[in-house]
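Protein fold
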Amino acid sequence: MSRTVLTACQERALAEILAARGVSATHLLTGYAGTGKTTLMQQVARALHRQGANVVFTAATHKATAVLKARVGKLAPCRTIHNVLSLQPGAQDGREVLQRADRPEPITADVIIIDECSMVGSELMRWVRDLVPDRFVLFVGDPAQLPPVGEAISPSFAIRSASHLETVVRQAADNPLVAAATAIRESQGGPLDWSWCRASHHEGAGLFVPRTPEAWMQRAFTSDAFKADSDAFRYLCWTNARVDAVNRTVRRWVHGGETPMPFVVGERVIARVPVMDVEGRRVMVATNEEAEIADIRPGVLRHAFPATSKVPGWTTELPVYDVVLRTLAGDETPVAILRPGADMGAIEQRLKREAALERARWQHRFVFRRNIGRLQAVYAMTVHTAQGSTFGRVFVDVGDISRRAATNVLEAQQLLYVAATRPTTAMILTGLPTGASGRK
């Protein structure tokens, strides 16, 4: 087996990380696209194993963890950080929060490596600090990516003990995707730069700017390659409205028109909220995790809200589709999704009125909402949702993303950067502003 040759930058960072373990509870490793963060994580794990450490790789989402497992899974276990810390969704005064499981698993790792740390928000960071103050936690991330929703930047980037990778590794130096990502990243903080929107590809890999992107999309999403692996192609944009529109269009191509129900048996979907087990104790399908429709049929959701000393009990019924999801692990779990005409608004208003009188109603509301899933087709997703994932070939809706620049230029640049760093083989641009590209 050939020996991995590190850049001088990687060698320095490796030494800094190993030295930090003895003097600091946390260390931060940052690096932009193409600087070899994954290679360095592999070397860190090997070095720590030689020191006798018990290492676990983690990420904030199931998809990011799956990507991590494909790259470093032979060296150490790969789990979500929520799984390692026994965290699950809960409710507090009407807000969804993270809570520790009633029977948490022991945390056995000496070293916890958290990849894609730009996705670690303040709440998760507090749990990490509270639960593993005596373990060494290495945060790894790219500061040019999107911050957690509602926050300016991940608090992980404030860690003082830090190393930074600057040198683009030789294998990535001539990659058109890395070149595009670098141009986008270097423009952050200034005006939008479209100089990277030029076709640059060889033997099916690189950056493409087709004249008929919709025809390319139709071929891609109806191809045998996509049927065999839904990560072969993906469409990325800014808004949920655009996601819904693209998913509707692609579903018509795939199924030859509209379908009687929103999904068909065998279709791959993405869970937009967690799907819990019937006892509500365990997450069966996590937010943004993919699953397959095993069964779907019309039904009615009946739910009873308990009486308290301050508010009466009552029962509601909603028209739903009763769905059975099959996870990637092969487990099956039921979930209800709303049918058109289901009036959630009136229920929400009543619950909020009652919660003003009885705080326990917030928990009752959470239990009720936990019974209702939200699923979307697998073809298109927002860039926020895609962060942490990788796909073979990605359609990037530059037109939709650039609309974000009207109110937040930096976020538009971050969206473009994250989109450009999702594909492993090719990026296909759509919706380009006039004069922004060289097509080929």
In short: The CA atoms of residues 144 and 185 lie 6 Å apart.
